Amino acid sequence: MGPFFKMALDPGFGCFKAAMVAEGELYSVILPSLVGVGETSLGLLQTGITRQKKSLPQQIRFEDGQTFLTGSNVGLYARPSQRLDTEHLGDSPEQRALTLTTLGLLIQQVFGYEEFDIDLGLIAALPVHVLQGADARSVVQALETWLVGDHHFELNDRPMHLHIHGVKALAQPLGSFFEWGLNTEGQWNRAPADLKASVAVLDQGFNTLDLFHLSGGQIVRRFTNGETLGMRRAAKIMQDLVLHKLDRKLSMHEADDLIRQSCNGHKVEMVIRGEGVDLKPLARQALDVAAGEVKAYLSQTWEDGKVFDTILLTGGGILALGERIRSVYGNAVEMVDPVTANARGLARFAQRAGVFELPKQVA
User: What span, in angstroms and rounded, lies between the C-alpha atoms of 180 and 230?
Assistant: First the structure.
């Protein structure tokens, strides 16, 4: 048996995130949730105009010969797939390619690029409404069925061999609570009063908005809920606006990128029929509509939020909506790295004694 590690995977609809603790340090990776079947080689094709190259997508090849491209710029080489149904969380070709690519990238980041043979236990972060749903058990069982076992594959032409001994499914926003409260050994690292406090988590993802409430370290059902009010709403509105006003089609991922650029203060421009067009007004309009829907949902479920001592804001969508939500809830605090906070927190939790038992050595 190789070295045994404990990892966390957050398979989001916008991007996959993974995290692990190694020698007291916390590591994380992000992979856009895009996957396609294609090749990156252009042969001898070239323009002769510029040497600048876009970063290539990741390439994963399985033992049966199936090859997938994943992550950034997949759309430049293949027709990208970005499934938004919850069924894909259990098992699908896209799920397998994205999951193993993400875990492989994390291992390569921590250990370098040698050939790997690694044993691990994995915590999988799932949306609140999935774990509350009638099909929760079947989704988790499907995830365990394909994940637990041996995985042989090549990632960017480098062989990898993972032995996954166990999978535990936990709610995504619970990870941000752990990121807020635990150290890298999985021990409570804040004042004892914070563990007894009323803490809410608002997790704004690409496809879902998850609300979570803990009091005294226990989940409170009344204020824990989930809805498909993620950033895809804003992205869909952006798609429609650009098509209607500029007669240009955007993918959901492209529309989401433009909205995020506008929130980060970057120039948002597209060249259409030889003319540069400022897209910031359209991005702002799409975001305003989406933010209004989120606020309406929050007012019904959390009301004024004064039953909470602290509200933790997390998820990639908080980079766009955080300021607007903080204007409503004065007790809201934005996570330092909201995109990876869930994975990082669950990686901390995974270090606690008893979460994963070390596999028994066979003589």
Answer: 22
